[in-house]
Design goal:
TIM Barrel, alpha/beta, 9 strands, 6-stranded parallel β-sheet, binds fe (ii) ion
Length: 242
């Protein structure tokens, strides 16, 4: 247990629906360290009309938060990326090279769909990102209504090089019964490449811990270790193999 890499977490202060203050950031990061994460990449939202953040705003907020967080004891290794909602505005920024890919390699980007339906032209857009040498990492597929009906809707995306990121807390019902059932099915069918916390506050770490325990029980040590360490490590280093 331990040494996990979290690719999805909202610990940057005052920029989205995650940490409000740097004290919240420190509490959240400490709670995630306790759960076993040694590296936690911040992924604040970029979403048109809801979180109108651009790269410069996120970089500035990250720098302000890190200035305080780095003085605290027992912090994990930190990094900055973003959760990019696949709308016209954010997609345009991504294609123009103004998104925030995963450090250090900068070869993969976290993408979020709306929960109710897949966005128009999502396949083409995910493919375009691949063409730009940015591998799409799809956030919480278990929360998307079209996937509840048929996990096969993800197949064309996987064929196009997208990898899937599990919110571990979905396994213990944090997002409801349909998402829980869907997460189990995707896990069983080997759809996921990595698992994350998607924590928004320190108290989320409780369900994350339960989710990780459940993950180990469901798939065993080797697969769970891959999803929490090797998979996310490869995404950061840009060495995901097709
Ligand atoms: Fe998120």
């Amino acid at each position: 247990m331990g040494d996990y890499i979290d690719l999805h977490c909202h610990w940057v202060a005052g920029i989205d629906d995650g940490a409000k203050t740097t004290a919240d950031s420190i509490d959240m990061l400490r709670a995630l360290v306790d759960v076993g994460f040694s590296r936690v990449v911040a992924t604040p939202h970029m979403r048109a009309g809801m979180f109108d953040n651009d790269r410069a705003m996120l970089e500035a907020a990250y720098a302000r938060t890190v200035e305080v967080v780095s003085e605290a004891e027992g912090m994990p290794t930190l990094g900055l990326a973003s959760e990019h909602h696949l709308d016209d505005v954010v997609f345009g920024q991504l294609i123009a090279g103004r998104g925030l890919p995963y450090p250090p390699a900068g070869r993969a980007v976290l993408i979020e769909f709306p929960n109710e339906r897949f966005p128009l032209k999502h396949r083409e857009r995910m493919f375009e990102l691949r063409m730009k040498k940015m591998r799409p990492v799809l956030a919480h597929p278990e929360r998307y209504r079209p996937v509840w009906k048929d996990i096969g809707v993800l197949d064309p995306l996987l064929d196009g090089g997208t990898v899937l990121l599990l919110d571990v807390a979905a396994l213990v019902g944090k997002y409801g019964r349909a998402a829980k059932r869907c997460a189990h099915e995707l896990l069983e069918e080997g759809y996921y490449y990595a698992a994350c916390s998607d924590a928004h506050r320190a108290s989320d770490a409780k369900e994350v811990a339960k989710g990780i325990a459940r993950l180990y029980k469901l798939v065993g040590d080797e697969e769970a270790d891959f999803l929490l360490r090797e998979g996310p490590g490869r995404i950061c280093e840009g060495r995901v193999e097709d």
